[in-house]
Amino acid sequence: MTNSRLKKLTPQFKNILRVSSKIAQKSGYNIYLVGGVVRDLLLNRPVFDLDIAVEGDAILLVKRLAEYLNKSFRKHHSFGTATLYYGNHKIDFATARQEKYPHYGALPKVRVSFLEKDLARRDFSINAMAISLNKKNYGQLIDFYGGRRDLKNGLIRILYPESFLDDPLRILRAVRFEQRFSFRVEPKTFLLMKNAIEAGALQLVHPHRLRNELILFLSEARPYRYIKRLYSLENFNFIDESVILNKNDFRFFIRAQSAIKFYKKEFKESNEIKSWVVYLAGILLNLSDEKYLEVINRFGFRKNQRDQAISIKEDLGKIKKLDHKRKASDIYKRLKSYSPEALVFFYAYFPKKNLRKNIRLFLEVLSQQKIKVKGRDLKKIGIQSSSFMGEVLKELFYRKLDKGLKTKGQELKEAKEIIKTNKS
Hints:
Elements: H1 3-6, H2 11-27, E1 30-34, H3 36-42, E2 50-55, H4 58-69, E3 73-76, E4 81-86, E5 89-95, E6 97-100, E7 109-112, H5 115-120, E8 130-132, E9 141-142, H6 147-153, E10 155-156, H7 163-166, H8 169-181, E11 184-185, H9 187-198, H10 207-218, H11 224-234, H12 247-266, H13 275-284, H14 289-298, H15 303-314, H16 316-320, H17 328-335, H18 340-349, H19 353-364, H20 375-380, H21 386-403, H22 408-423
Parallel strand pairs: 2-5, 10-11
Antiparallel strand pairs: 1-2, 1-8, 3-4, 4-5, 6-7, 8-9
């Protein structure tokens, strides 16, 4: 590889690599661009973050780099890594290391090493390439394990036979890369992957690590194919052996893709949706309430994520009642407490026309409404009690939804009617 590949990076990235190279040279270190970024450059895909391996002290290098650039960084002494924050990007630096797994499924023990050993610990050959950032061969591709050949042939291949047993999460990654790039798992790798699945390798992994990998898996664009492929291989036994998906569930995943796409397009300024929550709830939905809660707790999701997933399961019956003509205020009251993830789930789960229409009305219109009348306006017409003022404003908002009040004058007139009714 020549510098032409690196020229496809943004000016910010090109600058950080050049400066890193100079500081590394002064420090007597060799540094390399490694991992997924090299793969994506070869595939002409966009690059958002950088990973750099350092034959030397990565933390000391980043400290010097941050001082030179006047940027912030975070260090992790126990891992020999540091992250530099540069504009909207982050650049991860790691001391080159090799790994040894004390037992299958465990976190590895690491020790300082050099580039070839560092690349040998990677998951697949297509992620085990590097680009030199050193003066003598800047921009040169380093490929010890045939990654470029496998990339050209569209193959996912592990680097050694025990790979899936040492880190069973590579099973999920194999499916993820296979589907993302429309590649295929190399035959020997596929056989070893199937053997690891049948041996229950994923059950050896700590639930929190499984959770993190599953979030990445379900956050991929259009993950219907990913879910279908993994289910055909593993049945999601690593989540729970009771997980059973049928044709209707897979139809839901397809509808969910469309619903999430719609939400992201129409509500860019609203709360960002965590699409993986929608898909995970769909995978778990057929579990009993007790089992559903047990899985959510075992995986250790954050409180808000846990609450979102639980509300989806618990409130399906309540939402089903929205499949009728209702006042706008009733729709608002029913849906106002739900997260975007829950609303999108309900929209995708229920194909009924009226129910979907009501959810869409809430998202597009009702949730955007605000009243123009304020507390000070009510004071001017004689309302002094703050609690009564709150009740009036709340009722005024609901009447605005139902009556389609447009102007502040219309709202004030309605507010006076509310006050009059409450006093009589």
